[in-house]
Amino acid sequence: MDSGFIALLAEKLVEGLKTTLLLMAICGVFGNLLAVPIAFARISPRSSLRKPAYIFILVLRGTPVLVQLYLFYYGLGEILSRTPSLRHSMLWPYLRSAFGYAALALTLNTAAYCAEIWRGALEGLPKGQVEAAKSLGLKPWQFRLLVILPQAFRNALPALSGQNVLLLKATSLASTITIFEVMGAANLVRSQTFRVYESLFGAALVYVALTVAITFMFSLVERWVNKPYRH
Amino acid sequence: MATCRLDRHVALPNGSPQMDLGWLSGLAYGDTGWGDELLRGALLTLSISGCSYLLGLILGLIGAAAKSSRSRFARTLAWFYTTIVRAVPELLLILLIYYTSTSALRQVIVGLGIAQDFEVNGFVAACLSLGFVQGAYSTEVFRGAISAVARGQREAAAALGLSRRHTWWLVIFPQMLQRALPGLGNLWLVVLKESALISVVGFSELLFTAKMAGGASHNYLFFFLTVAIAYLVLSVASARIFEVIERHIGRHERAQG
């Protein structure tokens, strides 16, 4: 392998890495945060909350991420482009950027999967916790926030870690809607130089490193959360 | 889709012009709509998913056997397999295998003199790449299921004087299968959705067909919504089927409990 090719590949991969990290950060933060209220809605005794949450989770988990991505990018983009007031507005360049659609689709997808994880964790808590919190006179939002949520978080952590690795892998799909993240960058180099193996292996290395980093960060959080329980 | 087909059959014998399906006309059967193409795409999606799933199960059994094997080499190889596949995006692996399997398999077959020339078609390449990814996940499901079979079962088999092979096939394997079933059901749902990734290399399964249809008719939203509903129906239906199988297989334990 000549150094010129390696330099080109490295340069493109680093460029792509920035986009991947940005996409991952946005979807990771908003997806994980959005999952909590959806999970509470999903187990709510009120059907006006429970049913929409159930359908949201079912649809997002029952269809391929790629379909969701296309639905937002091509489908929603199509509707927006047919709305003249938007088409000719100052906002149009932003509404046309593929990045926004990818961020939206992956955030909602992550929210649905994580909500299901949270639901399992919430339902796994002993009933006595709720009763004890109520008998202490805590208000509903107080016992949800102070008693239920921290304990459920501890139960949900291992699965959330896996889900965030899946999110990282799903960001590679953004390359199919013209975003040059790591996968897109590797594809670009592949088509420019016709070196299939080197470019794809380069991208694979980046993803392995990112997966290790995510898993490591979650294991740190896990250790921190489990500290009071160690003897 | 079925209704569109019916409409056309009803409309044609009378010699009357084809019925106007309104906003559903994109799904018409025949030259005017994409109904037949989408149906063919859906069948391809199902058959690719089915073949990849089977290949994944075979690789998974081999992988799980390797993980619980006494050979250090086999264990390390299986560890690399599952770790790499779980850390690298499916899309990347599928591109890599799809592009290389076509040329590599051809070289092997021509090189061995099995055939003068051999063209690996898209279907085989798609199944190979998806099946390879599935195999890693199946390995984990089977490995978990094997370790969930109680230790006493193994000891009891040894006490009865069963050979290693008999212990595996008569005692461990059937119990392992039952414990693996929920995981295997999930994997089917995963491969069904993952098969959509094959559309990226231009293989005309369900999603690719919808993209073609959307591009040609300038109505992406309609066609992507249609395939989203199709995937959803397939997922929900298969989840139900697995539920029934699980209940059927677990019926003895319930009767005892």
Automatic annotation (TrEMBL), chain A:
Q: What positions belong to coiled-coil segments?
A: none
Instruction: Give all residue intervals belonging to the ABC transmembrane type-1 domain.
Output: 17-218
> Where are the bilayer-spanning segments?
20-41, 53-74, 94-115, 200-221
Source organism superkingdom: Bacteria
Subcellular location per the Swiss-Prot or TrEMBL entry:
Cell inner membrane; Cell membrane
List, alphabetically, the Gene3D superfamilies matched. Answer: MetI-like
Q: Which UniProt keywords apply?
A: Amino-acid transport, Cell membrane, Membrane, Transmembrane, Transmembrane helix, Transport
Describe its membrane topology: Multi-pass membrane protein
Concerning its family, UniProt says: Belongs to the binding-protein-dependent transport system permease family. HisMQ subfamily.
Q: What does this protein do?
A: Part of the binding-protein-dependent transport system for glutamine; probably responsible for the translocation of the substrate across the membrane.
- Its recorded name reads ABC transporter permease subunit
Per the UniProt record, the source organism is Dongia sedimenti
